[in-house]
């Protein structure tokens, strides 16, 4: 058996970011061959990632990258906010967002197959899983292409917990960023009330009518009451009609119009939304890891 020096272990750790014992075991298995040891760790990294595939990754970060007329907003997840705030994770999501913005893949499979310095985005995710010891995954992304007369605006809130990407017709980047900040804070559902599906509108009206009748309101005034409440509801969910967060005396559409523009579209990602988080006994989890 080849003798493994501390210097070799350190070199392998510096190259791969793995723990000391993992580095030493890989060098022993590779009989001191550094290149083979890296391969051993990569193979074990894949196995480690697959072993964690059943874990719930509900923490993470959202990020936005803009390259010319293309922009991407992405969400990458981890199991804990501790890992999400680590440098390896931050480096990963920055690379992922940049690559997706540059190449505009059609779906998640295509995004994971994009080429990087270390292989593919999927390879980079596996390596980050190996380094951090947690399941890391690319959950979703959206690529938007703008025209020459349009402007992107991006805003990241609370260290990446919420990301917003906005496109304005006309105006300027500063205005678009202001609107992105509003989107992050208020979470509208549609750009304008015209985008609300007819069935959604009909359902809300039905609910409001029953609500008014149950309040004992006379039928002759119910219709007028419902019309007012429906308009209020539409204003709450439609970006154009919402009170602008930086100036409640005007709506978002009025603010953008004052800058010579109009809201075209927006995307908002909030980390972990829609994911059912697992709860468990932290002590039991630590003990099970020690036993393994």
Automatic annotation (TrEMBL):
Residues 80-83 are annotated as: Involved in Mg(2+) ion dislocation from EF-Tu. Keywords: Cytoplasm, Elongation factor, Protein biosynthesis. Pfam families: EF_TS. GO terms for molecular function: translation elongation factor activity. Belongs to the EF-Ts family. Associates with the EF-Tu.GDP complex and induces the exchange of GDP to GTP. It remains bound to the aminoacyl-tRNA.EF-Tu.GTP complex up to the GTP hydrolysis stage on the ribosome. This is Elongation factor Ts. The lineage of its organism: Bacteria, Bacillati, Bacillota, Bacilli, Lactobacillales. The gene is tsf.
